[in-house]
Amino acid sequence: MTRFFFLVSGENPTLPFAEVKAILESEGHAYSILLKLSQVLVLELNSNSVESVVCRSALTRACSLLITYCIASVEEIFDSIRRVDMLDYVSHGERFAVRIRRVRGASQHIDRLSLERRIGEVILESVKGAKVDLKNPEKIFFGVLSDGNFVFGLKTAEIKAGKFKKCTSRIAFSHSATMSPKTARCMVNLARARRGDLVLDPFCGTGSFLVEAGLIGCRVVGSDIKRRMIEGSMWNLSAYRLRAEGLLVADARSSPYLPGRVDRIVTDPPYGTSTTTLGMDVAEVYRSFLSDARDILREGGYICLAAPKRINVSQIAEETGFKHLESHFIYIHRGLTREIAVFST
Prior knowledge:
- By secondary structure, this protein is of the alpha/beta class.
- The protein has two domains: about 1-160, VC0802-like, CATH 3.30.2130.30; about 165-345, Rossmann fold (3-Layer(aba) Sandwich).
- It has helices at about 15-25, 50-55, 75-80, 110-125, 180-190, 210-215, 225-240, 280-295, 315-320; strands at about 1-10, 30-35, 40-45, 60-70, 95-100, 130, 140-145, 150-160, 200, 220-225, 245-250, 260-265, 295-310, 325-335, 335-345.
- The strands form two sheets. An eight-stranded mixed sheet has the order 2-3-1-4-8-7-5-6. Strands 11-10-9-12-13-15-14 form a seven-stranded mixed sheet.
- Helix 1 (about 15-25) packs across helix 5, helix 3 (about 75-80) runs parallel beside helix 4 (about 110-125) and helix 5 crosses helix 6.
């Protein structure tokens, strides 16, 4: 087991951490949490399992092999780094750079650029022949200041924030209620979906969840009460050369799917704002759908859904036979806080 740390997005306090853990669990990777700070998660895990997070995550920004961590004081930082044999991380003649990230204004008493320069000097003293190259380094040493702590490592991967930006190249057919690709991928991950799983979205709309599930190797099926949305889902899937095993015009309250055949459900039912509930009370839409979903989801299956916080979807799901695992909340505007909830059978 090796120690790594992940720098995650700061746009939500709980979702990014939950996504990392869900990805590891979905792929069957064991891990231990060593430290959790604002936007930083330090784990002990097998090095080959890190690739799963890098390939799948929507809310992780970087991954680094952990070298050391300590209290964020200049003295502690340099004492800690000087105790490390840097030849384990950079060789004679290799080019390297040092990058420091400050999270949420942490440790303002430390000058970030000065710290980068001084750590570089320590590495040069330790590894004769190594060279600083800020433009084209072979190795990047990465440090994060967070919550009065300093975490330092060798960067192994970086995930560009723009990878999941909502744009026409990502979603060809769109609608005002379309879930962003980034949130859709995160929810697919929270459902513990894995390659080969059959993933259903019974309110598929433009197919955001189907696309993201398909891109990680899942088999996908979807339905929507509106034919125009089914046609849009087909268009978006085909843009990625993905094919659904089924796309049906159907009412999610009375599913056409066989009992116990679906591995995961990921969905965003209508709230009655920019979407329609066809005159039904929103809570009743969820109750009716969840009652039906309990039959079609296999034992040991997961469901991840979005709902307005006000309807208390966790209680509704438990009343229909699901086990509540976790919930996360996203403020949209004064009239809507979205709950992202995960349940198992």
